Amino acid sequence: MSTSKSTPIELKISEMLSNIMNERGISKNKHTTHIANVLGITITHANRKMKGFASWENSQLEKVAKSLGVSLSDLFKMVEDSYEEKHAGKYIFNKEVLEGEITFSPDTERTYSAVKINDQWHIFKTDDIKGNDIYEESRQGVLRFSIESSVRDKSKPRIALLDDDKEILTTTAELLKKGPYKIDTFTSSEDLIARIQSSPYDGYILDWVVNDKSTYDVCKKIRESKKPHAMIIILTGQTGDFIDQEIAEAFNDFDILGFYNKPLRIATIQVNIDKYFRNRT
Length: 281
Known about the structure:
single chain
């Protein structure tokens, strides 16, 4: 005597229908009855379908799906998704750490493959890792992968002002604060250098001579900081061949954005600052 065997696909369909019926408030002991009533078949036949021993025809599935308020295509999509293994979180693609979701397709050859290396998923083009025995042995096909796009940081650019003339410092800061900038003021090079080392700024406006010493070393520390390409503007109220030579060296060594003589024309400086940051957004 032959015995019928359930098939994986029939069972998956039945499991999905059971899940939907549960969501619709149809108790588990009423599932078979609901199927029988919708299709006009016996309880026994409906029971065989729900256990995966009898195949489903598309027309039957469409009727049952409709009775539960879903389309046939939605039902098939639910069944397909139930087969999928997924990884949600960080993964590496093109040497970049991304946040998103990988949907695996382990039994199918795909254009992209995923390999777990040191507990971190890496996605490669399948052709690029062919011939690598270690990767070939452990790779999984990738059906799809998504990328979550993070919100861009729209915080105000931070600008440091350095000048030992407190009146000029206050006036300049008040005018620049009217723009989209966060302004911090310093009256000593040492204090600013300490801040550069811990939390560098996006831009700097430096008096060239502070407390009788040039700010050449400050410029050097800026270019050695974690933000080495920050904007630097130099101000000076002093003149002379030596001063001019020092400033020329700073321009050459540190890519200074601009040099302005005191008394200041803040409007002109602000135009250049606005242009600098606008070109970097």
